[in-house]
Design brief:
The chain has 120 residues and is mostly beta strands. It is built from no helices and 10 strands. It is globular and about 40 Å long.
Length: 120
């Protein structure tokens, strides 16, 4: 079993920045991909960004050029630097870990979620 502990959410004005962190522990030997999903009220959970241990990344079109995902393999930690935040970025952000980026959605490895609220 993999445990994921998130931190870094909060309230920010539009145009501001936030940085999310997610530390993985437990049975992480099978984990290659880590990343972030988000879910806004009344909407489906969507992939925001993902990264493999080799550094390959995948971003949602809506965050390209504004968000940067990075990873410290030695610390089993993934980060999401969110810049130029917009009110539509408001959501609960969930950390996820899986063997591959393609299997992340089906993974059982989810963090508890952290609220990000962007005011206009």
């Amino acid at each position: 079993q993999v445990q994921l502990v998130e931190s870094g959410g909060g309230l920010v004005q539009a145009g501001g920045s936030l940085r999310l962190s997610c530390a993985a522990s437990g049975s992480i030997f099978s984990i290659n991909a880590m990343g972030w999903y988000r879910q806004a009220p009344g909407k489906q959970r969507e992939l925001v960004a993902a990264i493999t241990s080799g550094g390959s990344t995948n971003y949602a079109d809506s965050v390209k050029g504004r968000f940067i995902i990075s990873r410290d393999n030695a610390k089993n930690t993934v980060y999401l630097q969110m810049n130029s935040l917009k009110p539509e970025d408001t959501a609960v952000y969930y950390c996820n870990a899986a063997p591959t980026i393609a299997t992340m959605r089906r993974s059982r490895n989810w963090g508890q979620g952290t609220q990000v609220t962007v005011s206009s």
